[in-house]
Design a protein that fits this description.
Blueprint: H1 4-41, H2 70-81, E1 97-100, E2 105-108, E3 112-116, H3 122-129, E4 135-137, H4 145-149, H5 155-162, H6 168-173, E5 177-180, E6 191-193, E7 197-199, H7 204-212, E8 217-222, H8 225-237, H9 254-272, H10 277-286, H11 299-309, E9 315-319, H12 320-325, H13 327-337, H14 345-353, H15 368-400
Parallel strand pairs: 3-5, 3-8, 4-5, 8-9
Antiparallel strand pairs: 1-2, 6-7
Helix pairs in contact: 9-10, 9-15
Length: 401
């Protein structure tokens, strides 16, 4: 009979390779989790500790996460970008454009994008901008492609909407700028349709930074977050909800809105107890359903993300209040930002004379207790936004002098 030791020896020798394989797989998985955590936590920046939740333990050194996720980009966006003919890219045009030799067509991605936000004046802003002879309106103002419909099979449709082929000759003769204004691009997390929709592993600005680089410029309109949230909720949900098609829609009341705001704030603060702020922000906008989109008004958090992937001088932040009170001054700033000639006086008259687009007359005013509740919640985010914009404007003046 063999000894106990001789029986154990073969078993241990068999376990060693399996153990090594298990450790190797674990290390790969840990690295994957670390990289995924970087996606959420690196972009949190100094705002991560504002709500007294745990400071992110990963990525204290920003270089740990740079480059962020090229492997995710190749897997998720590679099939889309293979449709871009990089060899024929027009490097002198105002928009990222190229020639497709197979179809003999001229294709363009946007050279200017209005990123959002909804109910901050984006429609009016877009319609006045596109009066400029060098700015070409998209066939569909808000395709929401980057955040909701991106896929290899929808890419050509997106390009057709940005610059229809019938406009190519005029576009090229005027060295035009292709524009779109999907109001979700600034804040939405992003889906990929392949063909079943799945959550993108990259935030929209990260994917866009790989694709658009420095060829596209951006603008975002920000409005008082309390007013924006109230206006948005009743604009999109003013008819009310029904549990099925047979039920009568019951419009929400001011008290309904107040209760929903309390729930949204409670859930967000609970999320901050165990998760980084960026994760809470993006999970909030994706899981809002019938609730108000609370996180959209945290403009400073989203700016942190966009400024991580794009230089500040590539993104223009516009306050809606200034735009509606001084539209010519703001539009003049935008035309300079795009390096376009100012319109003629006659065209200025046409641009400024058109009625406000997509305005909504509120019969129901926000309750004072709701306004106080939301103002208090947004106060630290608004204060930090003001600080960020003041610092950015100061740096821009210093660099230009």
């Amino acid at each position: 009979m063999e000894s106990t030791d001789s029986l154990r020896k073969p078993a241990s020798s068999k376990l060693l390779p399996a153990l090594a394989l298990t450790i190797g797989i674990s290390l790969i998985y840990i690295d994957h989790v670390r990289q995924k955590s970087c996606l959420w936590e690196c972009a949190s920046n100094e705002g991560a500790t504002r709500q007294d939740h745990k400071k992110p333990k990963l990525c204290h050194d920003p270089s740990v996460c740079k480059p962020y996720h090229p492997e995710f980009f190749e897997a998720d966006w590679g099939p889309i970008m293979s449709q871009v003919n990089w060899e024929t890219m027009n490097t002198t045009s105002r928009s990222p454009c190229w020639t497709n030799h197979e179809t003999q067509s001229y294709r363009c991605l946007p050279g200017f994008m209005v990123l959002g936000v909804s109910k901050a004046g984006t429609t009016d802003f877009y319609e006045r901008l596109t009066r400029h002879p060098a700015i070409f309106a998209a066939k569909v103002k808000e395709p929401h492609w980057w955040t909701r419909h991106a896929s290899p099979r929808t890419f050509q449709t997106y390009l057709n909407r940005i610059l229809p082929q019938k406009n190519v000759l005029e576009f090229r003769s005027k060295d035009g700028i292709a524009i779109e204004a999907s109001a979700s691009t600034f804040w939405d997390r992003g889906y990929l349709g392949k063909p079943i929709k799945s959550l993108s592993r990259l935030l929209a600005p990260e994917a866009m930074s790989y694709i658009l680089g420095n060829r596209t410029r951006f603008a975002v309109l920000v409005r008082d977050p309390t007013e924006r949230m109230f206006s948005s909720y009743f604009y999109f949900h003013g008819k009310g909800f029904a549990r099925d098609k047979t039920e009568t829609y019951i419009p929400p009341t001011g008290q309904d809105f107040h209760k929903l705001c309390e729930i949204a704030i409670r859930d967000f603060n609970q999320c901050l107890q165990h998760s980084p702020i960026l994760q809470c922000v993006y999970s909030t906008v994706r899981n809002a359903k019938r609730r108000p989109y609370l996180a959209v008004g945290m403009y400073d958090v989203f700016l942190d993300v966009w400024w991580r992937y794009f230089p500040k001088n590539q993104l223009l932040v516009i306050r809606s209040e200034e735009y509606f009170s001084h539209p010519k001054r703001v539009l003049r700033r935008v035309f300079a930002f795009l390096e376009l000639e100012e319109p003629s006086e006659q065209l200025w008259e046409t641009i400024l004379a058109q009625p406000v687009a997509n305005s909504w007359s509120k019969e129901l005013g926000i309750q004072q207790d709701t306004k106080l509740l939301l103002d208090q919640f947004y106060e630290p985010y608004t204060a930090r936004l003001n600080k960020l914009l003041t610092l950015s404007e100061s740096q821009a003046k210093t660099s230009s002098s």
